[in-house]
């Protein structure tokens, strides 16, 4: 009889141990990440939500494997508070990682980073803003068209003046928005905040050369206009300073600048998309330096947002008599003092197979 009791007790104990082992195995599995993909799931925990409600939502979004196992984990570890906020969970977050985020309040970083590249024009700036924020391109253009806002900026920044309100200028802030990487609080950042962060940075850059600018015979507007051309025509500090020399010499000689990059901008054609048409080259436009009646004249305004390197080149051009330059298909730029030398350079490049063909 006693033997039977021992057997029963042993059987019950074995069953309990087996159940316990099975439970522990299940419990351990249920703490693992719900899946192995890399996609992020975003969830917002609202203030006042109970732990039960939060766990239910975590399960519905497949952030955890099991409500029951999660509740047990919370009870065993005496977790009393899960913080409200917006969270991002990876498919590789296990239960411990999920709850650690909620306990510590490791909410999503909603900041956005926008990089505006040197030599890009306002259409590109608008596209970047529309892509990275909650604003549409049309929203951005509306701000640029707000005359009262533009006037307020002229009052605020020493380097802005009435030149940017010229009726022939496409975008009043073209050339003045310093190209750099900026970080903003979230996608709902105001467009004005973006513009003013870029203007603040331009102010820092230009302030380094303020005395030099004020003693120059050219205005800030002129300097940035020349720098915007230099930015697109050159590719390093040395040749940019030489290109600046060419521009100054042509202006002094009452020659047209004859710069294709200004013609592309004039007709709102993205460079590299196609060749210019003869009709476009010969059409009068305040930006088109290859058009008629542009001898000795700059475009009406900048054609892109230039780098500090290009601004420096314009303020410190090389001295000489260069009037022409041409680039080969490798980007090497050749400078000459007269048209005959310029044409000889072109012929040499063609013979060597270095002439750029579209």
Give a structural overview.
The structure is a single chain. This protein is 48% helix and 8% strand. With 358 residues, the chain is mainly alpha-helical. The chain folds into two domains: 25-104, Endolytic murein transglycosylase (Dna Ligase, domain 1); 122-322, no CATH class. The strands form three sheets. Strands 1-2 form a two-stranded antiparallel ribbon. Strands 3-4 form a two-stranded antiparallel sheet. A two-stranded antiparallel ribbon has the order 5-6. It is elongated.
What distinguishing features does this structure have?
15 helices; two-stranded antiparallel sheet; mainly alpha; two-stranded antiparallel ribbon; Dna Ligase, domain 1; 358 residues
Question: What is the makeup of the main sheet?
Answer: 2 strands, antiparallel
Low-confidence stretches: none
- Overall geometry comes to elongated
Total helical segments: 15
Q: Approximately what portion of the residues adopt beta-strand conformation?
A: 5-15%
Report strand order across the widest sheet: 1-2
Number of strands: 6
Helix and strand element order: HEHHEHEHHHEHHHHHHHEEH
The number of domains is 2
